[in-house]
Amino acid sequence: MEAAGDAGPGPLAAFLPDDVVRAILARVPAESVLRFRAVRRAWRHLLTADRGFLLAHHAHQPLMPVLAFVRDAAAPGDQLAEFRVQALDLRTDELRAVAEGFTGVGRGPGLDDDHAFKVHASCDGLLLLHFLDAFYVCNPATRQWALLPPLHSSEIAALYAHAPTGEYRVLYHRGQGLDKHYYIITLSAVDPGERTRSIGRFASSASLDAALARGPSPAFASPPLRLHDCLHWPPQESQEHHMLVFHTVTEAFSWMRPPVVRDTVALLEVGGKLAMSACGRSAPVVELWLLQDYRNEVWVCAHQIGLPVGEISRFDDRQTWCAFVRSQEGDVLVVTPRHVLHCDVKGRLLKGFGREGREHDVTAHLLKESLVPCDISWIQSIGSESSDAVEDTDEDEGGDVDENAAEDLLMKMKLVPNV
Fold first, then answer.
1. Fewer CB atoms near the end CB (10 Å): N or C, the chain?
2. What one-character DSSP code corresponds to residue 39?
3. Whole-number Cα distances in Å, 310 to 306, 313, 319, 344, 357
């Protein structure tokens, strides 16, 4: 007989072996896993405290493209805005709510990027985002968040995991030209004085040093991909169309050669190899290149995916789009001014989605849900009491964070439904 207060496992789960139940639960979305905590007391520990299960659950979750938008949520003049982040499950074409909320702060059309809502980075289920001048690292699945020191949107280069220590870190740069330096925020540092440190601008050549002085494109526009303990950026004009590489262990920069230069590029991992999606603007073909030999930088073109141009034109007759591969299986997202279209590796149209909002961003980020607790020393959960603000340990050029506004935003933010 079940203990008092135990809802019981249900007729099917009662007869399934524990390892089968465990394998099933490892494959369901995080929101469902959290709801299942109420089914059985024995499951509650498994689903919240068994690190082995939580890691297995994270490993089985799909990589989902992240979409974000801001739209007016009231009559003109009220300046009430809604922000929303969604993740697209390419297996089912289901849009999952990741974060959403409202703000009553005025948001005129001339608002600059340091005030607008943006998603800057995604790493192991964590998102780095900002709104109302405040920057956060948060886990939508666990509703945990941490407030970062004052930053500017254009300064953030990456959020990444440091493999030797398991720490999560933020790479950013500050300064102009030859005065530009690079910094690292260590999210697990307990002492505020040790959270931010400078790594200078170490480069192996004068041309690379000049490129680092210009800086990579902001992470919200061109995020790097982490592979082999390195961060790899897509080729950028500021880097002379090279691929910038940051070695997270030695904390040195270098360059790699890209396979081609195209208008629309994005990096992904395919079968443990670095891959690059490449497509010209409104081109009928998107290419997927694989770095077959990492040491010698040998690329091969694995796929040339023909796009359904006729069907795309039905959604947008202006014949303006960009396309990029977003999965190991070759799923392609085609972005037009008014729609997002999902095609398979053979170029067949699977689904079309209308684009909402006046600031709609089909980001280059991929989200992989995680219920694994974060090692962030000043992390909070939404609804907890406010913590001390994160101290800015570097020259404060980013302005002051309005802590009340930041807390107000997080209290309004829905990361996952309460369960």
1. N
2. T
3. 11, 5, 10, 16, 26
The three-class DSSP label of residue 381 is strand
Q: Are 186 and 194 in contact (CB under 8 A)?
A: yes
Give the 3-state secondary structure of residue 402: coil
- CA–CA separation, 352 vs 194, rounded Å? 48
Residue 305, classed as helix, strand or coil, is strand
Phi/psi at 87 (5° precision): -120, 135
The helix/strand/coil state of 150 is coil
Nearest CA among 56, 85, 58 for reference residue 70: 85
Extended strands (E) in 42-90: 64-72, 81-89
Q: Beta 126-131 vs 118-123: how paired, if at all?
A: antiparallel
Q: pLDDT, tens digit, for every residue of 176-229?
A: 888 999 999 999 887 878 889 999 988 888 999 999 999 999 999 999 999 999
Beta bridge partners of 265: 278
d(CA 376, CA 137): 9
Q: Characterize 350-373 residue by residue with b for buried, 16 or more Cβ atoms within 10 angstroms of its Cβ, and e for exposed.
A: eebbeeebebbbbbbbbbbbbbbe
Q: What is the pTM for the complete model shown?
A: 0.84
Indicate the length of the chain as a whole number.
419
Tokens of 74: 């009231």
269: phi then psi, degrees, rounded to nearest 5:
-105, 130
Angle CA(391)–CA(172)–CA(152) in degrees, nearest 5?
70
Average of per-residue pLDDT values in the chain: 82
**Which amino acid, 290?**
L
φ/ψ (deg, to 5) at 92: -120, -5
Beta strands 156-162 and 144-147 are: unpaired
For residue 194, the Cα-to-chain-centroid distance in whole angstroms is 25
CA-closest candidate to residue 370, choices 416, 417, 410: 416
Residue by residue, DSSP assigns 312-345 as HHHH-TT---EEEE-STT--EEEE-SSEEEEE-T
CA distance 68 to 360: 6
